[in-house]
Design brief:
The complex is a heterodimer of chains A (366) and B (96). Chain A has 14 helices and eleven strands. Chain A is of the alpha/beta class and 366 residues long. In chain A, the strands form two sheets. Chain A has a nine-stranded mixed beta sheet with strand order 9-8-7-6-5-4-3-10-11. Chain A has a two-stranded antiparallel ribbon with strand order 1-2. In chain A, β4 (66-70), α2 (80-89) and β5 form a beta-alpha-beta unit. In chain A, α1 (49-62) packs parallel to α2. The radius of gyration of chain A is 20 Å and the shape is globular. With 96 residues, chain B is α+β, with helices and mostly antiparallel strands. Chain B has helices at residues 44-51, 59-69, 74-90; strands spanning 21-25, 30-35, 38-42. The longest helix of chain B is centred in the last third of the chain and has 17 residues, at 74-90. Chain B has three helices and three strands. In chain B, strands 1-2-3 form a three-stranded antiparallel beta sheet. The chains are: A alpha/beta (366), B alpha+beta (96). At the A-B interface, α1 of A face β1 and β2 of B.
Chain lengths: 366, 96
């Protein structure tokens, strides 16, 4: 996509494409793999409708094309329909990222009328008891089935987000079948990424290398079998990878997050990195935050890199991987993401992945 | 699912499906076609074609209109627009 033409720190400043709008951290479910921070934003600190409307208008002016209405559970907001309407008014393509628990059929109809473009519903397993156990909520599975039917009846495109980890990874095929049965046109095989609550529960969630390999083979087979019926996107479980993921498409390059209290983050885990200064939409315009907030400039471009990233031919492909993961696993946010085989700490990642325990989940809670 | 036909029937009424939108964004430099988790740049001509795909206008009439608007030979416009719409339909960005 076109660059904005602005120049910052000697490197061309990109225009962001996507905005993750965390409308609330409230959520009825307690999924142990949630990527929200352990310290969740309290309800009384949430941005109001008018502020979100302003943020959306500023985002569109900055070049943002797609907004993901998320959280927590966006359905927990009483003003969700007004928020979705404001996003549409701003000219943004609106995606609802929901557990389905908290979105009634009536709310969905109103969202459709307000111009909602796409709905993504998470599934925790292909089988009800396991699914509800993982979610920490009895009845979640049935609610997801019901809402999916309502989405399809309204002709809104549906994506199913299948979160994969040790407890369900053997059932990737069944989960894709479920997505098909629900009428989804896309399914994301979203292997858990270890941030926030997922990092806390890593030992209970991490699949084995063999399980990951089998799942990858299963996905390839599923793609062939279901070609033309459903699009299967897969997120790599990067603890078992040789190359790091281009996290968020590069720091401060393609996307931004606004938390329920209005803090603007380059990614959802950025607050775990010490020494970063984050700005709030309560005090600054979004364009100003994108271009000038110290947190956004901390790892923008490639100047901040050390070796081996600095002179690596992939530096503008994967940007050295994930800063938050580098910090979590090495204690240094400027280090090469140790998922990369070129990192001197790469062997540590395998060792961490092997530390699996059958502990009970520490369910997500306020 | 079949790929889009080589010839588009004159009475087809091409339209954007639910969840696909053509949007103009100044900061991104022009027209874009948006779908779930996908963004496609559309040049000015592609945008003019897609704008006319409302589901209410027959394909033949769309071609006629474009030929007139761009003062271009109809045969040429037919070939180019067919290729564009087939490409979009194959990506599920258009219903023919």
């Amino acid at each position: 996509m076109a660059q904005s033409g602005m120049v910052q720190n000697g490197a061309a400043l990109h225009s962001p494409l996507g905005l993750l709008a965390e409308l609330t951290h409230r959520c009825p479910l307690g999924c142990p793999y949630c990527s929200n921070p352990i310290a969740l934003d309290p309800r009384d600190d949430e941005l109001d409708t008018a502020t979100w409307a302003r943020v959306f208008a500023e985002a569109a002016a900055l070049g943002v094309l797609q907004v993901h209405l998320s959280g927590g559970e966006p359905g927990a907001r009483r003003d969700l329909v007004a928020i979705a309407g404001a996003a549409r008014t701003a000219g943004l393509y609106t995606n609802l990222i929901t557990s389905a628990v908290g979105i009634t059929a009536q709310t969905l109809r109103q969202l459709a009328e307000a111009g909602l473009d796409h709905v993504q519903i998470s599934i925790q397993d292909s089988e009800r008891r396991s699914a509800d156990h993982i979610a920490g909520y009895q009845g979640a599975f049935e609610r997801k089935r019901a809402l999916a039917a309502e989405v399809v009846a309204l002709k809104i495109p549906l994506t199913v987000n299948a979160v994969m980890h040790r407890a369900n990874i053997e059932r990737v095929g069944e989960m894709v079948e479920l997505a098909l049965a629900l009428g989804a046109s896309r399914v994301e095989i979203a292997h858990v990424q270890y941030y926030g609550w997922a990092l806390k529960n890593r030992a209970a969630l991490m699949p084995s290398a063999a399980q990951v390999e089998r799942a990858a083979a299963a996905v390839e087979d599923l793609r062939k079998r279901h070609h033309g019926r459903i699009v299967i996107d897969a997120v790599v479980p990067d603890y078992y990878a040789r190359l790091p993921k281009p996290c968020v498409g590069g720091w401060g390059r393609r996307s931004l997050n606004v938390t329920p209290s209005g803090k603007v983050l380059p990614c959802h885990a950025a607050e775990t990195i010490p020494g970063l200064e984050f700005w709030s939409v309560r005090e600054h315009a979004l364009a100003e935050i994108w271009a000038h907030s110290p947190a956004f400039n901390a790892f923008r471009g490639t100047d901040w890199m050390r070796e081996p990233c600095r002179s690596c031919e992939r530096r503008e492909i994967d940007f050295g991987g994930c800063r938050c993961q580098a910090f979590a696993l090495t204690g240094d946010a400027r280090a090469t993401d140790p998922v990369c085989h070129l990192s001197p700490r790469h062997a540590d990642v395998g060792a961490l992945a092997a530390m699996q325990r059958e502990d009970a989940y520490d369910y997500r809670h306020m | 699912m079949n790929d889009a036909p080589a010839v588009i029937p004159s009475d087809a009424r091409p339209r954007l499906p639910h969840g696909v939108r053509l949007v103009h964004n100044e900061a991104q430099g022009g027209w874009v076609l948006l779908a779930p988790e996908r963004v496609f740049k559309a040049d000015a001509i592609a945008a003019e074609v897609v704008k006319r795909c409302t589901g209410e206008t027959a394909f033949a009439a769309i071609v006629d209109d474009l030929a007139k608007t761009f003062s271009a030979p109809r045969e040429r416009v037919l070939v180019d627009v067919t290729a564009l719409l087939r490409g979009l339909a194959d990506k599920r960005l258009l219903e023919l």
